[in-house]
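Ligand: coenzyme A. Inputs:
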Amino acid sequence: MFDRLKEDIRSVFHRDPAARNTFEVLTNYPGLHALLLHRLAHWLWNLGLKWLARTISTISRWLTGIEIHPGATIGRRFFIDHGMGVVIGETTVIGDDVTLYQGVTLGGTSWNKGKRHPTLGNGVVVGAGAKILGPFEVGDGAKVGSNSVVTKAVPEGATVVGIPGRVIVKSVSEDDARRREMEERMGFDAYGVTDEMPDPVARAVRSLLDHMHAVDERIENMCKALHKLDSEYRNGELPPLDDKDFDCVRDDVGDSESGRA
Ligand SMILES: CC(C)(COP(=O)(O)OP(=O)(O)OC[C@H]1O[C@@H](n2cnc3c(N)ncnc32)[C@H](O)[C@@H]1OP(=O)(O)O)[C@@H](O)C(=O)NCCC(=O)NCCS
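Predicted complex:
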Protein backbone atom coordinates (compact mmCIF):
# COMPACT_ATOMS: atom_id res chain seq x y z
CA MET A 1 0.00 0.00 0.00
CA PHE A 2 2.84 2.37 0.91
CA ASP A 3 4.54 1.54 -2.39
CA ARG A 4 1.39 2.68 -4.21
CA LEU A 5 1.27 5.85 -2.12
CA LYS A 6 4.92 6.61 -2.92
CA GLU A 7 4.21 5.99 -6.60
CA ASP A 8 1.23 8.39 -6.52
CA ILE A 9 3.37 11.06 -4.85
CA ARG A 10 6.24 10.55 -7.33
CA SER A 11 3.80 11.01 -10.22
CA VAL A 12 3.02 14.53 -8.90
CA PHE A 13 6.73 15.44 -9.08
CA HIS A 14 6.93 14.07 -12.63
CA ARG A 15 3.98 16.07 -13.87
CA ASP A 16 4.02 19.32 -11.90
CA PRO A 17 7.24 21.35 -12.00
CA ALA A 18 5.85 23.48 -9.14
CA ALA A 19 5.97 20.54 -6.68
CA ARG A 20 8.90 21.06 -4.27
CA ASN A 21 8.87 18.34 -1.61
CA THR A 22 6.85 15.36 -0.36
CA PHE A 23 5.35 17.20 2.61
CA GLU A 24 4.12 19.99 0.36
CA VAL A 25 2.62 17.46 -2.08
CA LEU A 26 0.91 15.47 0.71
CA THR A 27 -0.62 18.57 2.24
CA ASN A 28 -1.41 20.84 -0.72
CA TYR A 29 -2.48 18.72 -3.67
CA PRO A 30 -6.26 18.19 -3.75
CA GLY A 31 -5.81 15.83 -6.71
CA LEU A 32 -3.75 13.53 -4.50
CA HIS A 33 -6.24 13.78 -1.60
CA ALA A 34 -9.11 12.92 -3.94
CA LEU A 35 -7.18 9.96 -5.36
CA LEU A 36 -6.33 8.54 -1.93
CA LEU A 37 -9.93 8.91 -0.73
CA HIS A 38 -11.12 7.34 -3.99
CA ARG A 39 -8.84 4.32 -3.48
CA LEU A 40 -10.52 3.81 -0.08
CA ALA A 41 -14.04 4.43 -1.43
CA HIS A 42 -13.47 2.07 -4.39
CA TRP A 43 -12.28 -0.67 -2.04
CA LEU A 44 -15.41 -0.25 0.11
CA TRP A 45 -17.59 -0.15 -3.04
CA ASN A 46 -16.16 -3.48 -4.19
CA LEU A 47 -16.79 -4.95 -0.70
CA GLY A 48 -20.47 -4.03 -1.14
CA LEU A 49 -20.40 -1.15 1.39
CA LYS A 50 -21.94 1.18 -1.19
CA TRP A 51 -23.40 3.84 1.13
CA LEU A 52 -20.13 4.23 3.03
CA ALA A 53 -18.22 4.38 -0.25
CA ARG A 54 -20.51 7.11 -1.62
CA THR A 55 -20.30 9.05 1.62
CA ILE A 56 -16.50 9.05 1.50
CA SER A 57 -16.71 10.19 -2.12
CA THR A 58 -19.02 13.05 -1.07
CA ILE A 59 -16.70 14.11 1.77
CA SER A 60 -13.83 14.03 -0.71
CA ARG A 61 -15.85 16.32 -2.98
CA TRP A 62 -16.47 18.79 -0.12
CA LEU A 63 -12.76 18.84 0.66
CA THR A 64 -11.29 18.91 -2.84
CA GLY A 65 -13.97 19.98 -5.34
CA ILE A 66 -13.29 16.73 -7.22
CA GLU A 67 -16.13 14.25 -7.64
CA ILE A 68 -15.09 10.67 -8.37
CA HIS A 69 -17.76 8.00 -8.22
CA PRO A 70 -16.50 5.12 -6.06
CA GLY A 71 -17.33 2.66 -8.85
CA ALA A 72 -14.80 4.26 -11.24
CA THR A 73 -11.73 2.16 -11.95
CA ILE A 74 -8.49 4.15 -11.85
CA GLY A 75 -5.02 2.86 -12.77
CA ARG A 76 -1.63 3.65 -11.31
CA ARG A 77 0.13 7.01 -11.13
CA PHE A 78 -3.06 8.94 -11.83
CA PHE A 79 -2.68 12.70 -11.42
CA ILE A 80 -5.29 15.44 -11.26
CA ASP A 81 -3.68 18.88 -11.36
CA HIS A 82 -5.53 21.71 -9.56
CA GLY A 83 -8.64 19.53 -9.56
CA MET A 84 -11.55 21.85 -8.86
CA GLY A 85 -14.62 20.88 -10.90
CA VAL A 86 -13.43 17.44 -12.04
CA VAL A 87 -16.24 14.87 -12.37
CA ILE A 88 -15.55 11.18 -13.03
CA GLY A 89 -18.56 8.91 -13.60
CA GLU A 90 -19.32 5.48 -12.21
CA THR A 91 -18.38 3.30 -15.19
CA THR A 92 -15.26 5.24 -16.17
CA VAL A 93 -12.11 3.20 -16.60
CA ILE A 94 -8.77 5.02 -16.44
CA GLY A 95 -5.45 3.40 -17.39
CA ASP A 96 -2.00 4.06 -15.92
CA ASP A 97 -0.14 7.41 -16.00
CA VAL A 98 -3.21 9.45 -16.91
CA THR A 99 -3.30 13.21 -16.20
CA LEU A 100 -6.41 15.38 -15.86
CA TYR A 101 -6.58 19.11 -15.29
CA GLN A 102 -9.27 21.12 -13.53
CA GLY A 103 -12.81 21.16 -14.85
CA VAL A 104 -12.60 17.84 -16.73
CA THR A 105 -15.76 15.75 -17.00
CA LEU A 106 -15.61 12.05 -17.83
CA GLY A 107 -19.35 11.67 -18.17
CA GLY A 108 -22.21 9.83 -19.81
CA THR A 109 -24.83 10.88 -22.32
CA SER A 110 -27.57 8.47 -21.36
CA TRP A 111 -29.50 7.52 -18.25
CA ASN A 112 -29.30 3.83 -19.04
CA LYS A 113 -27.53 1.65 -16.54
CA GLY A 114 -24.42 -0.20 -17.72
CA LYS A 115 -21.29 1.20 -19.31
CA ARG A 116 -21.98 4.84 -20.13
CA HIS A 117 -18.70 6.63 -19.33
CA PRO A 118 -15.41 6.68 -21.27
CA THR A 119 -12.38 4.41 -21.01
CA LEU A 120 -9.06 6.24 -21.07
CA GLY A 121 -5.93 4.34 -22.16
CA ASN A 122 -2.48 4.63 -20.59
CA GLY A 123 -0.71 7.98 -20.66
CA VAL A 124 -3.74 10.01 -21.75
CA VAL A 125 -3.67 13.76 -20.96
CA VAL A 126 -6.96 15.67 -20.73
CA GLY A 127 -6.68 19.47 -20.77
CA ALA A 128 -8.50 21.88 -18.45
CA GLY A 129 -12.26 22.04 -18.92
CA ALA A 130 -12.46 19.21 -21.48
CA LYS A 131 -15.55 17.00 -21.52
CA ILE A 132 -15.35 13.39 -22.67
CA LEU A 133 -18.86 12.06 -22.91
CA GLY A 134 -19.94 8.50 -23.68
CA PRO A 135 -18.85 4.86 -23.41
CA PHE A 136 -16.02 4.93 -25.96
CA GLU A 137 -12.25 4.58 -25.79
CA VAL A 138 -9.58 7.23 -25.76
CA GLY A 139 -6.47 5.42 -27.01
CA ASP A 140 -3.13 5.19 -25.23
CA GLY A 141 -1.08 8.39 -25.27
CA ALA A 142 -3.90 10.52 -26.68
CA LYS A 143 -4.17 14.21 -25.75
CA VAL A 144 -7.44 16.08 -25.38
CA GLY A 145 -7.16 19.87 -25.72
CA SER A 146 -8.48 22.17 -23.03
CA ASN A 147 -12.21 22.93 -23.35
CA SER A 148 -12.78 20.28 -26.03
CA VAL A 149 -15.97 18.25 -26.08
CA VAL A 150 -15.23 14.71 -27.22
CA THR A 151 -18.11 12.38 -28.08
CA LYS A 152 -16.36 9.78 -30.25
CA ALA A 153 -13.49 7.33 -29.84
CA VAL A 154 -10.00 8.83 -30.06
CA PRO A 155 -7.23 6.82 -31.75
CA GLU A 156 -4.00 5.98 -29.93
CA GLY A 157 -1.53 8.89 -29.79
CA ALA A 158 -3.96 11.36 -31.40
CA THR A 159 -4.49 14.96 -30.28
CA VAL A 160 -8.10 16.11 -30.22
CA VAL A 161 -9.20 19.75 -29.95
CA GLY A 162 -12.37 21.78 -30.33
CA ILE A 163 -16.12 21.33 -30.11
CA PRO A 164 -16.93 18.72 -31.29
CA GLY A 165 -13.47 17.24 -30.74
CA ARG A 166 -11.50 16.71 -33.93
CA VAL A 167 -8.17 14.96 -34.37
CA ILE A 168 -5.53 17.46 -35.46
CA VAL A 169 -3.00 16.30 -37.98
CA LYS A 170 0.26 18.10 -37.59
CA SER A 171 1.84 19.03 -40.90
CA VAL A 172 5.16 17.33 -41.56
CA SER A 173 7.84 19.69 -42.87
CA GLU A 174 9.55 18.96 -46.21
CA ASP A 175 12.80 18.21 -44.35
CA ASP A 176 11.10 15.73 -42.04
CA ALA A 177 9.39 14.02 -44.98
CA ARG A 178 12.73 13.72 -46.83
CA ARG A 179 14.46 12.33 -43.70
CA ARG A 180 11.70 9.78 -43.21
CA GLU A 181 11.99 8.69 -46.84
CA MET A 182 15.79 8.24 -46.52
CA GLU A 183 15.41 6.37 -43.21
CA GLU A 184 12.92 4.01 -44.80
CA ARG A 185 15.18 3.45 -47.79
CA MET A 186 18.11 2.40 -45.59
CA GLY A 187 15.94 0.42 -43.16
CA PHE A 188 16.52 2.71 -40.16
CA ASP A 189 13.64 2.79 -37.74
CA ALA A 190 13.95 4.81 -34.52
CA TYR A 191 11.33 2.55 -32.96
CA GLY A 192 9.10 4.17 -30.36
CA VAL A 193 11.01 7.47 -30.50
CA THR A 194 9.02 10.64 -31.01
CA ASP A 195 10.34 14.09 -31.93
CA GLU A 196 10.14 15.13 -28.27
CA MET A 197 12.36 12.29 -27.05
CA PRO A 198 16.07 13.04 -27.06
CA ASP A 199 17.36 9.70 -28.44
CA PRO A 200 21.06 10.43 -29.15
CA VAL A 201 21.48 7.58 -31.68
CA ALA A 202 18.41 8.61 -33.67
CA ARG A 203 19.61 12.21 -33.64
CA ALA A 204 23.10 11.23 -34.78
CA VAL A 205 21.69 9.12 -37.65
CA ARG A 206 19.41 11.98 -38.67
CA SER A 207 22.33 14.45 -38.65
CA LEU A 208 24.29 12.03 -40.84
CA LEU A 209 21.34 11.78 -43.22
CA ASP A 210 21.10 15.57 -43.38
CA HIS A 211 24.82 15.76 -44.09
CA MET A 212 24.58 13.05 -46.78
CA HIS A 213 21.72 14.94 -48.37
CA ALA A 214 23.70 18.20 -48.42
CA VAL A 215 26.75 16.41 -49.95
CA ASP A 216 24.52 14.69 -52.54
CA GLU A 217 23.05 18.02 -53.54
CA ARG A 218 26.47 19.61 -53.88
CA ILE A 219 27.82 16.72 -56.00
CA GLU A 220 24.70 16.88 -58.16
CA ASN A 221 25.30 20.60 -58.82
CA MET A 222 29.00 20.00 -59.56
CA CYS A 223 28.05 17.22 -61.99
CA LYS A 224 25.61 19.53 -63.75
CA ALA A 225 28.33 22.19 -64.13
CA LEU A 226 30.84 19.62 -65.43
CA HIS A 227 28.24 18.20 -67.78
CA LYS A 228 27.83 21.64 -69.31
CA LEU A 229 31.61 21.74 -70.00
CA ASP A 230 31.74 18.20 -71.40
CA SER A 231 28.50 16.56 -72.50
CA GLU A 232 30.14 13.09 -72.31
CA TYR A 233 30.71 13.61 -68.61
CA ARG A 234 28.59 11.48 -66.33
CA ASN A 235 27.40 9.06 -68.98
CA GLY A 236 28.10 6.12 -66.66
CA GLU A 237 25.48 5.79 -63.92
CA LEU A 238 26.45 5.21 -60.29
CA PRO A 239 25.84 1.66 -59.12
CA PRO A 240 22.34 1.63 -57.57
CA LEU A 241 21.92 0.99 -53.85
CA ASP A 242 20.47 -2.44 -53.35
CA ASP A 243 18.18 -3.25 -50.43
CA LYS A 244 20.20 -6.43 -49.84
CA ASP A 245 23.29 -4.31 -49.07
CA PHE A 246 21.64 -3.27 -45.81
CA ASP A 247 20.74 -6.78 -44.66
CA CYS A 248 23.95 -7.15 -42.62
CA VAL A 249 23.19 -3.83 -40.85
CA ARG A 250 19.66 -5.01 -40.05
CA ASP A 251 21.05 -8.36 -38.80
CA ASP A 252 23.48 -6.51 -36.52
CA VAL A 253 20.72 -4.28 -35.18
CA GLY A 254 18.47 -7.32 -34.71
CA ASP A 255 21.23 -9.18 -32.84
CA SER A 256 21.98 -6.26 -30.53
CA GLU A 257 18.23 -5.70 -29.87
CA SER A 258 17.64 -9.38 -29.05
CA GLY A 259 20.74 -9.22 -26.82
CA ARG A 260 19.19 -6.28 -24.99
CA ALA A 261 15.81 -8.00 -24.58
C1 LIG B 1 -4.23 19.96 -27.15
C2 LIG B 1 -2.80 20.24 -26.75
C3 LIG B 1 -2.26 19.05 -25.95
C4 LIG B 1 -2.04 20.41 -28.07
O1 LIG B 1 -0.69 20.63 -27.85
P1 LIG B 1 0.36 20.48 -29.05
O2 LIG B 1 0.41 19.05 -29.51
O3 LIG B 1 1.63 21.10 -28.60
O4 LIG B 1 -0.31 21.27 -30.25
P2 LIG B 1 -0.09 22.80 -30.68
O5 LIG B 1 -0.05 23.70 -29.50
O6 LIG B 1 1.05 22.79 -31.65
O7 LIG B 1 -1.44 23.12 -31.45
C5 LIG B 1 -1.78 22.51 -32.68
C6 LIG B 1 -2.99 23.22 -33.23
O8 LIG B 1 -4.15 22.97 -32.40
C7 LIG B 1 -4.69 24.22 -31.91
N1 LIG B 1 -5.07 23.98 -30.51
C8 LIG B 1 -4.27 23.57 -29.49
N2 LIG B 1 -4.98 23.42 -28.37
C9 LIG B 1 -6.26 23.76 -28.68
C10 LIG B 1 -7.47 23.80 -27.91
N3 LIG B 1 -7.49 23.46 -26.62
N4 LIG B 1 -8.60 24.17 -28.54
C11 LIG B 1 -8.60 24.50 -29.87
N5 LIG B 1 -7.48 24.47 -30.64
C12 LIG B 1 -6.32 24.11 -30.05
C13 LIG B 1 -3.54 25.21 -32.02
O9 LIG B 1 -4.02 26.51 -32.12
C14 LIG B 1 -2.86 24.72 -33.27
O10 LIG B 1 -3.61 25.16 -34.38
P3 LIG B 1 -2.86 25.57 -35.76
O11 LIG B 1 -2.17 24.31 -36.24
O12 LIG B 1 -4.01 26.00 -36.62
O13 LIG B 1 -1.92 26.65 -35.40
C15 LIG B 1 -2.68 21.52 -25.88
O14 LIG B 1 -2.94 22.67 -26.64
C16 LIG B 1 -3.64 21.55 -24.69
O15 LIG B 1 -4.78 21.99 -24.76
N6 LIG B 1 -3.11 21.06 -23.53
C17 LIG B 1 -3.83 21.11 -22.27
C18 LIG B 1 -3.05 21.96 -21.32
C19 LIG B 1 -3.88 22.39 -20.10
O16 LIG B 1 -5.07 22.19 -20.00
N7 LIG B 1 -3.19 22.98 -19.17
C20 LIG B 1 -3.81 23.44 -17.97
C21 LIG B 1 -2.76 23.93 -17.03
S1 LIG B 1 -3.48 24.65 -15.63
